[in-house]
């Protein structure tokens, strides 16, 4: 016999009456309050959003679905296996929409199997080939002698996984770049390579290995679930303790005490403690020692008021180099590129003219894979325009231009009609919509019957910098809206490094970077080195060291800096969700296909199995063990009306 | 068959609140998609669909949690739940590592090692349903709860999950902060629901064999079976979220290749079971849901313990279904929680 049971705070079960405590079944953990319009709180605590008023309807859908699946749940039922293997699932938290989308599959006959050569990889729509075994290599420039010839190697492809996914760049090759003008750049290429900078192009291409890749067949796009806008950030601080050694604990304790002293402006005590940290750190091993070292440095910068906090003059080229090592040593950037590309690919389905705007072009490592995927699209590739934004270079090179050249060369070998434009900008806030829009008259054809250009805006670790200046983010999001993108992909660090006191920020950052460093130690490089063989081993170590420097620079910005100097203002998925929603965007969900492929990518590239992909209300996160560290989300401008962004929901 | 489906659904809906029915039916249908006829499991889709929550060192209702790597070699994680440590009065800082692994109280306190359910294949220690339950145990018993993220089938068959449970118990025995009272004792309870209950039993056996003292076992709808088809299995098949066929699939996925359900892991008091008479096996609280089709096996388990001379308290909730402990919306829930609380406090 069913009985509803009301919970009483006094505790019919004798729950301990600690201050501020009530029987925790109400599930306030996720911060769901009435603003969600009567969401069932008990289910919400378990990760499901169902309005109480919808409960009966949801129950009915469950019954319908069960009938369709076969009453005895025999697993060889055709519809059941269709739901499992062929259907793309989105946002399981929104039960009602999830059920509806499965019920709608009842009316869609299962598609024919594709002629893909890849086993275990059937029927996935818009499958991205895995990221290239090597990124498009960048010339490693010695800033003092940028006119020397540099050589760049394509590393050999990594080992095949059991899933038989093929790397894109099949053949290693050597590409030579010199400072002399290109021997033969035909007029067509010159016209394509319009840039806003006036420096001459200086690259001469060699061949890039032929691309090899398998693709799943195209499928009708699965319906995308919409979700209610999320509430405020939950403010959870997930901690993964890896090292319970006594010495490690004491080290953390001292770090915290020092940060506390800094917060209280007790600089004398802080000075003593920061020296203690260095001593304690020396007796540690592994990740903890390195993290402690960087945090000690960061604290020292704060204590002794070292300005400028970073050596800005070598900044951008050096950053790019560090980032490439970071790209190699662990899967975070690959995941970012992969998941963002998946969303872009899906958004570009059926479009003949597409335009990608990359807010942080750097070495363009994200784009070869997307270009490959577009090239292999059933029905042929669209014409692709790429706009790359980058910071000013302090040396004579034009990295933005060079990247464009390399991508143009790749585009030619894979027969994708390609245009590139690079914009140098100090800040994304300097961009205006007119700079990003399609040119009047198009590419020579023009005319009313030319297909409109479909736009994707891509931002990997760029948006958070804008939070250093009030109004900058709003301006940029306004510019993004103005170009009416089909999709906006955002990848950000999953951390709360932009709120609260110095001490709170310090604590959050300590946990975040400890987990990050631990993953470098335990994950990628070990496996990658093994895969590459002896030759790669030292390369793997170098990658790890440089990655630590890369992360160390972030630490030395997050911790000691304030105001406009502090550009590493990471915020959580929940916080970004709020910002994007307020700016008038609605979520585009990433589905089970992207999740699955991202998970498989980890098995391919990452040595350790501590890396985890998780789905969170239509977004995907990658983390180390149970701590998400980066999050990919996708957005679009609502189709109808073009409502102005408003403060209210 | 359509007609009897309707009857089933209506019957089932009569005995649980609607939101419980929705929750468990959702699991049922999702799980149906994950089990393949060839015995393989769609792990990616399973992980995608599972609702997870992060740990949180900021107190929520007086409870904090953090994840800890118990064993680097096997990558064995556990989520530790504990009452929020008091913040030193002169400091505003949130919990530190040092405070995280400190005793929650100067007085003796229970340590509950919890093994989540999921028929050996589903869920994780960071699944929302189990995070919620473990937090409740902390509040209920003033306990430190260790939720073990054991290896699951079919990727890892017997005895991986038991080995992980044993690793967790040994780890707890070696942590000074988990020992309390004048005698600095580890007051440990082994607990779990469904497959977790099964794991708790087998770890308790190993503990008894090895001389590690366990204060008590708390088994919620523990997962047992055997080759026979019992009366409750016939009577309740398919009626309350669970089918005999799906039980068979999970056993096949967990047990060694070629083994049948009279394997002692599945049927500890069956023809291949071990004798527990001589062992200092711990006391048990066994909770059985009357609408769980495997209840005959659970009742037989309790009987088996009794016959072997061991202390068992059986709580038989005749009208409860599987998963009644996920949502605090029935008398089953509250009365069973009360039983657990009393069991722990009287054996701590």
Automatic annotation (TrEMBL), chain A:
**Which Gene3D superfamilies is this protein grouped with?**
Transcriptional regulator DELLA, N-terminal domain (1.10.10.1290)
Keyword set for this entry? Gibberellin signaling pathway, Nucleus, Transcription, Transcription regulation
Q: Where is this region: SAW?
A: 560-636
Motif residue range(s): VHIID:
354-358
**Intervals of motif LXXLL motif:** 463-467
- Residues of the region (VHIID) are 323-388
Q: Where is this region: Leucine repeat II (LRII)?
A: 402-434
List residues of the Transcriptional factor DELLA N-terminal domain: 40-110
Gene Ontology terms: biological process = gibberellic acid mediated signaling pathway
Q: Which GO terms describe its cellular component?
A: nucleus
On the tree of life, the source organism's domain of life is Eukaryota
What residue spans carry the region label Disordered? 179-208
InterPro entries linked to this entry: DELLA_N_sf, TF_DELLA_N, TF_GRAS
Where does it reside? Answer: Nucleus
- Family named by the database record: Belongs to the GRAS family. DELLA subfamily.
What job does the chain carry out? Transcriptional regulator that acts as a repressor of the gibberellin (GA) signaling pathway. Probably acts by participating in large multiprotein complexes that repress transcription of GA-inducible genes.
What domain comment accompanies this record? Answer: The DELLA motif is required for its GA-induced degradation.
Q: What is this protein called?
A: DELLA protein
Source species taxonomy = Eukaryota, Viridiplantae, Streptophyta, Embryophyta, Tracheophyta
Q: Gene of origin? A: LOC103701852
Automatic annotation (TrEMBL), chain B:
Is the keyword Hydrolase assigned to this protein? yes
Give the GO biological process terms: floral organ morphogenesis; gibberellic acid mediated signaling pathway; positive regulation of gibberellic acid mediated signaling pathway; raffinose family oligosaccharide biosynthetic process
Entry's InterPro entries? Answer: AB_hydrolase_3 (IPR013094), AB_hydrolase_fold (IPR029058), Carboxylest/Gibb_receptor (IPR050466), Lipase_GDXG_HIS_AS (IPR002168), Lipase_GDXG_put_SER_AS (IPR033140)
Q: Which residues cross the membrane?
A: none
Which residue positions are annotated as catalytic? 194
| Record GO terms (molecular function) | gibberellin binding; hydrolase activity
Where is it mostly found? Answer: nucleus
Q: Which domain of life is it from?
A: Eukaryota
Q: Which residues form the signal peptide?
A: none
Q: Which UniProt keywords apply?
A: Gibberellin signaling pathway, Hydrolase, Nucleus, Receptor
Pfam families xref list: Abhydrolase_3
Nucleus: present as a keyword of the record?
yes
GO CC annotations? cytoplasm; nucleus
Q: Which family does it belong to?
A: Belongs to the 'GDXG' lipolytic enzyme family.
Name of the protein in its database record: Gibberellin receptor GID1C-like
Q: Which organism is it from?
A: Phoenix dactylifera
